[in-house]
Amino acid sequence: MKTISGLFTDHYQLSMAEGYFSAGRKDDRVNFDYFFRKNPFGSGFTIFAGLQVLFNLIEDFQYDSDDIDFLYKRGFHDDFLDFLKNFRFRGSIYAPKEGEVIFPTESILSVEGNIIEAQLLETLLLNTLNYQSLIATKANRLRQSAGKRSVMEFGMRRAQGWAAIHGSRAAVIGGADSTSNVQSAYIYDLDSSGTQAHSWVQSFDDELTAFRTFAQLRPKKCVLLVDTYHTLNSGVPNAIKVAKEMQQQGHQLFGIRLDSGDLAYLSKKARIMLDKAGLPEVKIVASNQLDEYLIKSLIHQGAKIDVFGVGTNLITARDDGALDGVYKLSAVNDRPTIKLSEDVAKVTLPGKKKVIRYLNGNGEFYADGILLSEDDPDDVDMIYHPQYADKKSMVNGLEKENLTSKVFENGNVLTAKKSIGEISEYRSLRVSQLADEYKRFEYPHIYKVGLSSNLIQLRMDMIAESKRSK
Amino acid sequence: MKTISGLFTDHYQLSMAEGYFSAGRKDDRVNFDYFFRKNPFGSGFTIFAGLQVLFNLIEDFQYDSDDIDFLYKRGFHDDFLDFLKNFRFRGSIYAPKEGEVIFPTESILSVEGNIIEAQLLETLLLNTLNYQSLIATKANRLRQSAGKRSVMEFGMRRAQGWAAIHGSRAAVIGGADSTSNVQSAYIYDLDSSGTQAHSWVQSFDDELTAFRTFAQLRPKKCVLLVDTYHTLNSGVPNAIKVAKEMQQQGHQLFGIRLDSGDLAYLSKKARIMLDKAGLPEVKIVASNQLDEYLIKSLIHQGAKIDVFGVGTNLITARDDGALDGVYKLSAVNDRPTIKLSEDVAKVTLPGKKKVIRYLNGNGEFYADGILLSEDDPDDVDMIYHPQYADKKSMVNGLEKENLTSKVFENGNVLTAKKSIGEISEYRSLRVSQLADEYKRFEYPHIYKVGLSSNLIQLRMDMIAESKRSK
Predict the structure, then answer these.
(1) Which of residues 119-158 of A touch B (CB under 8 A)?
(2) Interchain proximity B16–A186, CB inside 8 Å
(3) pLDDT, tens digit, for every residue of B350-402?
(4) Residues of B in contact with A332 (CB under 8 A)
(5) CATH top-level class for A1-195+286-330+411-434?
(6) pLDDT at residue A470 above 70?
(7) Which domain of life is it from (chains A, B) (predicted)?
(8) What is the CATH number of domain B138-316?
(9) Tally of CB atoms within 10 A around A1
(10) What ipTM describes this predicted complex?
């Protein structure tokens, strides 16, 4: 399924690429880092997602003759366009596994390559990783609130257009059990599921006939929507009637769905009615503008809900609709580069780097260190706060992991392809290695991310040099 | 460019479709209405967008043998799948023109068809119209704040994944002058534009060389990014040097771009520096987390900005990331249907309907009336508030327009294809027909949308009948 081409980029990437080409710099080697500055939703961490999709899209990131004609009409020059005809991204990518727990500031992903390929890829890379990491993080918050209850992703109709295609994938990575989105289920082999709509019930002369017909057709996993007319006076009693009829035919009603009204009150009443009718196994599905806070509150109120259907607030990450990931140049031909800013937090980290995760003896994450790639992790005893150099942490003797490794080289993916289920399991494992204080919704503990002394020194030197040169 | 198939739908649409098929109801005729309940962003109105894209996607909304195999594995039955093999949407669509000004409650778009095609289309239709209408509405607010200054849409890297593809289109419909998104520019023939990134400047040994090289390559519409090191001490002075060199070669620097810091202060200082250097024609482009409120404030502060580049806040509609459009069944085999709710505002409007726009003598919109399709508009003298029947408006003698017409029938689009420029012009015309009180950002005047007495009566009768039947 090819939708994108090398045109999936910002106009200025092509202008700059042409510039590098014309300036005879096409073989310059560069390093770009992908990182973000702030966890979304006030979370204490972020889930890394989108990497395997990026690998697939890199394959499509080429220019066919129609693309070339278009660029010619838009003023790009023949010699550059001839070069683009054979363009393929052949750089290297260093990254964590999909599903990894990641934090602000750290160079999560690095691209090494020639200056044109690394520049042209920027927009596609940011577009892919920012959105999927955002949604996986949101889904993980829902998963946290729902505990052992199920979460269905429902949001395709309210998704931001084709965002739905990758959004449902990211939701399952983050912890949703299934999606209503059949297109994504097809592409990514996700569990797809659904119940029924009000239109089904309305389209019959009466609610009981609507329920009965649906149950006859889909006796397995049948869920009946009980709020089209009146939930407790009509919907639940009719569902109970049909559940009893199903029992006589050897089937079992899977559940009922509440989609409006006071979900705490209605679910408790419905649970009592179902239990009294001898139907304790019939589940209650609830939906209607749910998010992680409402789910928490419903559970706290003792709502009898087994499955939460979450739509808009998950697929659009409505309360914080973008991850602010950026892609910054950190080296040209092995010369480190820096971007200054009047805002100290926005000064970039120069040079090629790697990220080390330090663990406590019990397997819990303790801190992440950003080191220069030539730093030997065994020689790094201390990491320093990115802005306040007097804040530092001893890391010697701690267990260490390389957070990133080379995952893509010369057009080839170097890691085994994982199913979405496997990625979600890895996410679950890694989240479990994070202490609870980092996971609370309100003022989570801030996870330590520090720099090696060599990186601190390089940055200080480059800032000083830049001031001298004025 | 085919990305979607008939699988671009919610799982339950396929379950229900199979249900209708198995129940022998595949030839039942139905009517569904698309409407929304709340303008986004607290706006006084919404811009209708996405219709031509929907027409294109309907062509792709089919099931090939891979799709059928997939559905078979997911438990759908052979006879239904045989039916799906030849499935095409052949229903009729009634809608306003793209770019129309629309309001909550009104049946903006109606689908008439057999029960299976009308049901299956729901998710695709909502996904397409909700997002594009949201973004066009946001862009129109930016356009309103920017006045005669330019607005560039910049958000591809922060867009919700492939939302970018249609988001940039909708942004231009709503009033953006251009987009950075080359993929959308290619598909929809939009103006694409861009400046340069910090990485360009960083990749050279010094800023002046970076600027000079770019200017030599792109002497037309050259914009230099001046904040990589120090805006006023280095960026602007270097840009001025290059502008002078360009003049000697018969070229003119188009502009400079500010992307950080205090945009009001920096733009004023930069303007003075440029003017003193005899470069009054060099424009100032500004970007960095802009939205309609910041743009208004910058202009109010006397900022010297000619072009606003808007990213995340436009393409994700960050402060209100979803339009709540729904698609509700209003008739089955010419029998009107209703969905009740404990929330009176959520009771649907039964039956087939049409929307009439009433105008004052001076061409300004006065009110919209929702009439039953059998109502003769010439006989409707009064329209009634949807909830408070004592609130009513005289409409006799007013100029009238049919807001909607049949635009799609039997697989064919009935209207001439419009360019995005034409759609944007229509949007601009229609917004100009709306009085200023509806356009302010704070507590806009609420536009009148009323029902005909026959529609009020039908709804009352159906509610009463539903109560009797219990």
Answers:
(1) 119, 122-123, 126-128, 130-132, 134, 154, 156-158
(2) no
(3) 999 999 999 998 999 999 999 999 999 999 999 999 988 789 999 999 999 99
(4) 202-203
(5) alpha beta
(6) no
(7) Bacteria
(8) 3.20.20.70
(9) 12
(10) 0.96
